[in-house]
From TrEMBL:
InterPro entries in the record: HTH_AraC (IPR018060)
UniProt organism field: Mucilaginibacter litoreus
Name of protein: Helix-turn-helix domain-containing protein
Superkingdom of source: Bacteria
Location of the HTH araC/xylS-type domain: 171-267
């Protein structure tokens, strides 16, 4: 199954974070063993996800699995929990009965909440034992429900965030992404820098420092992801220029660059 083109959300339960974490955590989710079993029986033995530059925790509640990151395959055993950046295409190979608790951060969110810069995480699979306390991981695994797991991680993240100093670079990057989104993805990097009263060179340095990629590349990824999601949801009423594309050909070219697939191959 391929992210965006197909509904990979059908195997997950989702919830948004509390208000204080909203700018930094995109969502908490948990795959359902029952839903994964149905999904697997229909021949969907893997989930392919495209780049997003969003640090993501995968906390294993059942068996092991394999995951492809940075063109390498990693085996994640039963007791292993991992952190990946999602700076490129990631494929997770499912098992019947999978149950995985996920925490997905926005770009730079992990640094604001836990003081961890994501730049060094490119193409890596990092053990969460190096990031989270063992007691917290045990508490999450032993919790009786998805809601209990969310509460446990939220309490920890809120406490950690209060002890982490606000980073000037992360703050500027967050504001820049907000300006780009609010403009309907019409602004270029220079125009965003001007709105933030900084130079183009500065905003480029900030993005490379916080996210790990130049602002132009990140904005291109965000636009392609957002526009493609909108097209899949309502193709009849989709207009690519709403998302800053010149015409349909410009959009199709960007989708191919982003996903490696032509829309005609999928529809």
């Amino acid at each position: 199954m391929i992210e965006i083109f197909q509904n990979i959300r059908e195997i997950y339960d989702f919830t948004a974070p509390c208000g204080e974490l909203l700018p930094f955590v995109e969502f908490f989710s948990e795959s359902s063993a029952e839903k994964c079993g149905r999904y697997f029986s229909r021949g969907h033995e893997s989930v392919t996800m495209f780049e997003s530059w969003t640090p993501t925790f995968y906390i294993n509640l059942t068996g092991g699995y394999m995951i492809d990151v940075g063109n390498k395959r990693f085996v994640v055993d039963n007791e292993q929990d991992i952190l990946i950046l999602r700076n490129g295409t990631v494929t997770r190979h499912n098992q019947p009965g999978d149950q995985i608790f996920t925490v997905k951060f926005y770009p730079g969110g992990l640094e604001r909440v836990l003081g961890l810069n994501q730049v060094s995480m490119t193409d890596r699979v990092i053990s969460l034992n190096q990031i989270l306390p063992q007691d917290l991981l045990r508490q999450i695994k032993r919790a009786a429900s998805f809601d209990e797991r969310v509460t446990a991680i939220e309490v920890f993240l809120l406490r950690s965030m209060k002890q982490t100093k606000t980073d000037h670079y992360s703050s500027i990057v967050n504001k820049a992404i907000g300006e780009y989104t609010a403009s309907g993805m019409q602004l270029n990097t220079s125009e965003i820098a001007e709105r933030l009263f900084i130079t183009s060179k500065s905003i480029s340095r900030y993005f490379n420092r916080v996210v790990g990629v130049a602002p132009k590349s990140y904005f291109s990824t965000l636009r392609a992801r957002t526009a493609l999601t909108a097209m899949v949801a309502d193709r009849d009423n989709f207009k690519p220029w709403t998302y800053g594309y010149y015409d349909p050909a410009h959009f199709y070219k960007d989708v191919f660059r982003f996903t490696g697939r032509k829309i005609s191959q999928v529809y």
